[in-house]
Amino acid sequence: LNDTNPRSLIVRLCDVLSSLRIHGVVFEDDTRSEAVAHILDFLSAQTAVPIVGVNGGAAIVLTPKEKGSTFLQLGSSTEQQLQVIFEVLEEYDWTAFAVLTTLLPGHEDVVDYVEVLTDGSFIGWEHRGVLTLNLSDDDPDGSRLRRQLREISAQIRLLYCSREEAEAIFRAARDAGLTGPGYVWFLVGASFGGSDSLPE
């Protein structure tokens, strides 16, 4: 199923499910679109057919799932990623950090979960603030973005954004001198993975 636009994906899957005796579906795609996961979750809930998402948009972890869904995703949720990141920060005694997000859906949940992890901890976390970046077209040379990135003084930065946004942010961070030795960036979110690398 190479065509992952919602209509053709739903029609094709429904055709397969109605024409064959299927006990379950294993689904892999090359997209990083969360829409694929939502479609598969919906279809599982409506048809009672177990679906396993193993890669791409199908593996972007959704919480919560539709009632009655038997959609299993082999990936880590944003909350699980943040738990691991904070264990790494604790291990290396990197207690001062900042959170950077874009307006990507879920960014408020990320900020809230960071608060949960740090407020209830005995570690002396030094949260240096949250910066929400608005990557609009009215900054063609990236000067506003570079200025915003310099506003945060933390050398440890947790970044929640889409893959496309990350490319623009890292270009601006590199130009602002915020990617060299002494700076550690953690990318948070389901849209990162696979073998494609971000620009250096």
Give the SSE map.
Layout: H1 6-19, E1 25-28, H2 34-47, E2 51-55, E3 71-73, H3 78-91, E4 96-101, H4 107-119, E5 126-132, H5 143-151, E6 156-160, H6 163-175, E7 184-188
Parallel strand pairs: 1-2, 2-3, 4-5, 4-6, 6-7
Helix pairs in contact: 1-2, 3-4, 5-6
Protein name: NMDE4 protein
Domain Receptor ligand binding region: 33-188
Keywords: Membrane, Transmembrane, Transmembrane helix
Characterise this structure.
- By secondary structure, the chain is an alpha/beta fold.
- The chain has two domains: 6-73, no CATH class; 78-188, Rossmann fold, CATH 3.40.50.
- The chain is built from six helices and seven strands, in the order H-E-H-E-E-H-E-H-E-H-E-H-E.
- The longest helix has 14 residues, at 6-19.
- The radius of gyration is 19 Å and the shape is elongated.
- Residues 193-197 have low confidence and may be disordered.
Descriptive keywords:
single chain, 6 helices, four-stranded parallel beta sheet, Rossmann fold, 200 residues, 18% strand, alpha/beta, 2 domains
In short, what is this structure?
By secondary structure, the chain is α/β, with parallel strands linked by helices. Helices cover 38% and strands 18% of the residues.
Rg over C-alpha atoms, rounded to the nearest angstrom = 19 Å
* End-to-end separation: 33 Å
Which range best describes the helical content: under 10%, 10-25%, 25-40%, 40-55%, 55-70% or over 70%? 25-40%
Query: Order of helices and strands, N to C?
Result: HEHEEHEHEHEHE
Average pLDDT number: 85
Give the class-level CATH name of the largest domain.
Alpha Beta
- What is the name of the CATH topology of the largest domain? Rossmann fold
Multimerization status:
single chain
Please tally the β strands and state the result: 7
Q: Looking at this structure, what is the CATH superfamily of the largest domain?
A: Response regulator
Unreliable sequence segments: 193-197
InterPro entries: ANF_lig-bd_rcpt, Peripla_BP_I
Domain Receptor ligand binding region: 33-188
Keywords: Membrane, Transmembrane, Transmembrane helix
Protein name: NMDE4 protein
